[in-house]
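Throughout this chapter, every protein is written as a compact record of paired, labelled lines. An example of such a record is reproduced below:
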Amino acid sequence: MKEKKRFILKALIDVILVNLAIYLSLVLRFDGLIPAGYLRAYQHLVPFFTLSHLYFNYRFGLHKRLWQYSGLREMFSIINAVSCAVALNIILAYFMQERLPRSIYILTWILGIGLIGGSRIFLRMVRSGLFSTIQPKGGHPTLIIGAGQAGLMVTKELLHNNENKLKVIGFVDDDPYKQHSELLGLPILGKREDIPDLVKRYAIEEIIIALPSVPGSVIRGITRICAGLPARVRTLPGIYELIEGKVTVNQIREVNVEDLLRRDPVTLDQGEIANYVTNKTILVTGAGGSIGSELCRQIVGFCPQKLLVLGHDENPIFEIEQELKNTCPQLNVIPIIADIKDREKLRVVFERYQPEVVFHAAAHKHVPLMETHPEEAIKNNIFGTLNLAYAADRANTGIFVLISTDKAVNPSNVMGITKRAAEMIMQKYSLISKTCFVAVRFGNVLGSRGSVLDTFKEQIQHGGPVTVTHPEMTRFFMTIPEAAQLVIQAGAMAKGGELFVLDMGEPVKIIDLAKDMIRFSGFDEEDVPIDIVGIRPGEKLHEELVAPGEVVSNTKHPRIIALKPDRFDVQQFEAWLRELAYYAYTAYDPEKAAILLNSITRLSKKAKAERVS
């Protein structure tokens, strides 16, 4: 009913404006003394002229547009609508044999565009608050970083929302062409290096970073400049989070660690993914974990027929099941409590549900812990993967996607070696199976359970110290949704045997991450010290995503590359697996199993030597 009333109101305003344009045309043409004959012609024609204008206004969608956000495109719509209406009016006058001077139509065209367009511009000015830019008295002095579109939008919101009690003093922008200029009557005061001086000069209490599309390195630089200043630093979400193009005060939030990694949003080929996910039975292992649960959330959007959420821990599986059912009640979510080390249970699951796509995210991933319990990493990461691959092969599953890690590249620890072995299992089965086996490799995920962020947060809460293993240690990072989306996209590109690597951006120093988290928590290094504790067993100073012998090729997705992995002797690999199983299960000799693990690199070296000879 509201929409109907709004439509009628807009139509009535247009009726008044159209009639005014036609009448003013006559007044201007005859200097206010309209001859009686032309006045009668006007009275006969005006109902038809009005209807023609309303018709073309409707056809060009003038009643649907949000004029408070109008621009050139909307003005072209008005020009087109008025032009078509005037052309039709000329035809109507000819057939009705009512004569009006030709100049009337030209004047009507000019006045129609001016009045109708002017009314929309006036509405935009009123709705945007351009007539009332009075700042709140006694508000907190605020500096906006970024004098672009986002800075413009957030400033408008702050200028006309007196409840926020923020008083915008001006802008900071690195663009040299914007220096000494004004935006909304407020000065652009300098560049980012001027921020400390500006904070002191204007007693700034709030700094808002209005740069939603810049990379994380820029945000990192700005937050470091602002470190130690007596001003609260806040930001807008990334551009991919600003859905409707309008900034509100509620979207301005504290800077978080994810802002420091900010990259372009992931673009997915919706049709390609739908082809292999929609109306299919999908199995996600490790579905209660960080990556597994996010994969489930992303998959739901593609309407699978069934979603099997498998894990050995009942509480996380229950939680993700309830979340998915609340999000998408019509979805058929089937929780499965199972351990991937249990081959017989997996056989039953695959025979009963016949999954068409498998995302294998279940794994032991804690590097130091797996160094002390290598047999558990062997059983779960290697033989659990082998069990799943065997079950998928027997059930003729369509696509099997293994979630791997950068630690599988030139592995130096038990966890990395077991994940490299899992990748080799994928390679082996891709040679003998009808199932399309692929692996996806990426680095650390921000916010995943047990991640360095969790450790740092807990240490900061206890007053420190924050422990960093080495001042030069770097790691690749990405967000959980980013990783899950790219994994699903990689599955859509799979043909069998590929090893996909996700674009992780630039590596980040762990010590810089620790300093940023201390600062975001409202402390400095005097309050929460950083201790350098030394590299732990199995850790590398710098991780890699591509091994020296792997051949890199681009894919059609800019954030995913494909690798042609090193060849290895499959028979020797199978013999290695049998010996490993003996030490892990039968003899139960973790030390010998760990020693045998380290010989995995020799398998690919032998294959290289055989190719060379």
Q: What stands out?
A: Residues 239-247, 606-613 have pLDDT under 50 and may be disordered. The longest helix spans residues 2-29. The chain has three domains: 2-128, 140-260, 270-602. The chain is about 50% helix and 15% strand.
